[in-house]
Amino acid sequence: MFFYHLALAVSKFILYLLNGKPEIYGLENLPENDNVILASTHRSNWDPFIIANTIKPRHLRFMAKESLFQIPLFGYMMRSAGMIPVNRENPGRKAIKSAITVLSEGNDDFAIFPTGTRHSTELKSGTAFIQRMSKKDIIPIAIQPPLGWRETLGRKKAKVYFGKPIPYLESVKYDKAKLAEVDQALAEAFDDLDQQLDPTFEYDPSVHQK
């Protein structure tokens, strides 16, 4: 995992240089003896690195858009770091199966951005399905990163909140209604965590991601 640790070291140095140490809350909600699904808001390209650096020495795996894996050398580095390629518009069974394998057969945590992209705030289905198949708890995460060059160069700190688990319940049938319930609980958790971090925070993809 040389490239994984290299990417974390470089990203941590850059983030600390530009914005200082992030404000982190709720790390006690991560279970000590089990891996989990980390479901996070997605508002900047730094989000995966912020999460991965925060949970060290735990190891994180996450999906990245498949076009990145086609870039010479960079794609090789991503695969070597354990990243999983995914078509954002049509994730397909292979990507979902890879996520479930990570959670069911290893010790790594798996991160997912339920909106699929920084350009949307609408949660897509999939997180609850991965929970059903892997039988793992979901930890919701809200990240309020520096948005745009003005906030980045203005040394605005990132804020991160790890919420209470959305548990997998052995006694419950994860049918269509239950999966929708999990997705709704995740959406509500994001809103609640954002409010706790900064009740004035607003994220508008049409403004911040131009």
What does it look like?
With 210 residues, this protein is an alpha/beta fold. It is built from eight helices and seven strands, in the order αββαβαβαβαβαβαα. It has helices at residues 2-19, 47-55, 74-80, 92-105, 127-134, 148-153, 176-197, 205-208; strands at residues 23-25, 37-40, 60-65, 84-86, 109-112, 138-144, 159-162. The chain has a seven-stranded mixed β-sheet with strand order 1-7-6-2-5-3-4, with helices on both faces. β3, α3 (74-80) and β4 (84-86) form a beta-alpha-beta unit. α1 packs across α2 and α5 (127-134) crosses α7 (176-197). The N and C termini lie far apart (34 Å). The model has no long low-confidence stretch (mean pLDDT 89).
Question: How do the strands and helices of this protein lay out in sequence?
Answer:
Layout: H1 2-19, E1 23-25, E2 37-40, H2 47-55, E3 60-65, H3 74-80, E4 84-86, H4 92-105, E5 109-112, H5 127-134, E6 138-144, H6 148-153, E7 159-162, H7 176-197, H8 205-208
Helix pairs in contact: 1-2, 4-5, 5-7
Q: Please, how many helices?
A: 8
Strand content: 5-15%
Number of strands: 7
Biggest beta sheet attributes: 7 strands, mixed
Structural class: alpha/beta
Strand order of the largest sheet: 1-7-6-2-5-3-4
Q: Please estimate the helix content.
A: 40-55%
Which geometry do the CA atoms define? globular
Please compute the radius of gyration using only Cα atoms: 16 Å
What is the succession of H and E elements?
Answer: HEEHEHEHEHEHEHH
Q: How confident overall, as mean pLDDT?
A: 89
First-last Cα distance = 34 Å
